[in-house]
Amino acid sequence: MRQGRAGSSARLAAVATCAGVALTVAGCSPSQTADDDDAGPVTLETWISQDMETLFPGDAGAYDNISVLDVVYDGLVRYDPETTEPYNYVAESIEPNDDNTVWTIKIKPDLTFQNGEPVDAEAFARAWNYTADGDNGLYSGYFFSVIEGYDEMQPETDEDGEIVTEGAADELSGLKVVDDLTLEVTLSSPFAGFSTMLGYTGFFPVAQECLDDVEKCALEPIGNGPFQVTDWAQGQELTAEKWADYPLDETPGYDSIHWTEYATGETSGWADFKTGDLDLSFPPTAEVEAAKNDPELAERYVERPGSALTFLGFSGYTEGPWNDKEFRKAISMAIDREGIISSLGSGQATPADSWVVPGGVPGGEAGTCEWCVFDPEAAKAALEKAGGWPEGKKLQISLGDDDAEVEYFTAIGNSIEEVLGIPYELNIDPDYFTTRAEQGYDGMFRNNWFPDYPLNENYLSFYASGEPGAGHWGWYSEEFEDKLDEAAAAPSLDESVALYQEAEAILAEEFPTIPFRWSFSATYYSERLDNVVLNPFSGAPILRGIEVSAG
């Protein structure tokens, strides 16, 4: 076992006498009555798969820190796990004006952070301003580009991305605290889907104490959610205990969550799950079939179609055949998606033929990618039309250090080489995210995206200029940009969704990236758990809804 795991079995044994049901979710809590005098707190044992650097809401963009923040913080809205529809949570109401340019947000009264500070309009305003300020360089800053005054907060940078001149403003001019519980948001242009965004972590409130020491808060967050981080040994384990003063409805009945942190590229703690040290896990590829055929495990399994898209990008910022659409079409049609996924995915992924998850968010439809089919003859014809591949050169395929993805991309490279005769080499880059952001690749590279909120716009705005994604592959389309603007300005959300579908059609025609697979979310859970439901976006178990018994 990894360092920091020795206490897990002892913790599980210590709570084995707890019994009963408490609050809104079954499990043990300090408030419940138990017949056994030795009844103790109940801990949910789970995992995260990569070393996290921060738990500051505006700087969290990965599956793992988002999963933790989902129980440590509450946002204005949350999302129904079945329909994906947003519903007001910290917000009392969210209302637009007639043209969707000014949004009035009313916040529920008497809410506080875990340090006693009020969760009010100012708490949201200061968090949004700090995250939007480009001088701070936070991951989620670009989400605030829809709000008036964002551009004035962005610095000038040199070719290396270093700040030359700081932004002229440090607050969004479109953000107004009307009174303690009212926030008025003026957008730079109409956007019918604005309220849909507001459950994303980047829009969470932040305590003033947190902004007074952001570096400390990134490791010791001061949330307003049902759990409070009490210990974090980075790279090893993280513990959060239930906040006794939590006032809202989604109150878990168990007492704490303990995450074991596994190094990137390792499995999700499957060996620990099998020995009873974890309550949630999924097996590595080699053990998927054995797990599926185990009748006991089959009773403790939950799945749902995923919404994470793995796709292939090209370094359009460098010279190469990939700047020809016919070449990109050839590569796409040379990839045997179904065969690769069938042999490596054990049914836990589906071939992708669209850029927006079909049926998973409003506007998602299958079949928008005409060239996402395995067609060797058409692939060869497209390559010939593109002028072929330079003799003696290898196609570099770059990705991060992840064992499962290395298997997938080896299979992709083999399929391309077999069909088109293009030799390849994998570039396993431990600094993949940084290199990609700095346009440091020459060839083809892996990309992955799952939506932050339920709207097809969230998949498509990734390609807009000035947003993460556009710089990754050096693609720009004025027609596409204009259609995004038209969709955002639509008078209703339904009309907006339809126009975003037209934007996807433009993307499909210009074909800057190649969809490969959609995730298929699944997990196994221990005999102690019930009501295990998966997040419709990330696929992670929704921890605050799980029921935990002591058995």
Describe this structure in words.
This protein has 551 residues and is α+β, with helices and mostly antiparallel strands. Helices cover 27% and strands 21% of the residues. The chain is built from 18 helices and 23 strands. The strands form seven sheets. Strands 15, 16, 17, 18, 19, 20 and 21 form a seven-stranded mixed beta sheet that branches. A four-stranded mixed beta sheet has the order 3-14-13-12, with helices on both faces. Strand 10 (175-179) and strand 11 form a beta hairpin. It is globular and about 65 Å long. The two termini are 23 Å apart.
Give a short overview.
The protein is 27% helix and 21% strand. With 551 residues, the protein is an alpha+beta fold.
Termini Cα gap:
23 Å
Count of strand segments:
23
Strand residues, percent: 15-25%
Shape: globular
What is the number of helices? Answer: 18
* Mean of all residue-level pLDDT scores: 88
The structure class reads alpha+beta
Radius of gyration, in Å, reads 24 Å
Q: Low-confidence parts, pLDDT < 50 over ≥5 residues? A: 1-37
- Biggest pleated-sheet summary: 7 strands, mixed
Helix content: 25-40%
Helices and strands in order:
Layout: H1 7-14, E1 21-22, E2 25-26, E3 43-48, H2 63-72, E4 77-79, E5 86-88, E6 91-96, E7 102-107, H3 121-132, E8 156-157, E9 163-165, E10 175-179, E11 182-186, H4 194-197, H5 208-212, H6 214-219, E12 227-233, E13 237-242, E14 256-261, H7 270-274, E15 280-281, H8 288-292, H9 295-298, E16 301-314, H10 325-333, H11 337-344, E17 349-351, H12 376-386, E18 395-399, H13 403-420, E19 424-428, H14 432-437, E20 444-449, H15 457-460, H16 470-473, H17 478-488, H18 493-510, E21 514-525, E22 529-530, E23 547-548
Parallel strand pairs: 3-14, 18-19, 18-20
Antiparallel strand pairs: 1-2, 4-5, 6-7, 7-11, 8-9, 10-11, 12-13, 13-14, 15-21, 16-20, 16-21, 17-21, 22-23
Helix pairs in contact: 10-12, 11-13, 17-18
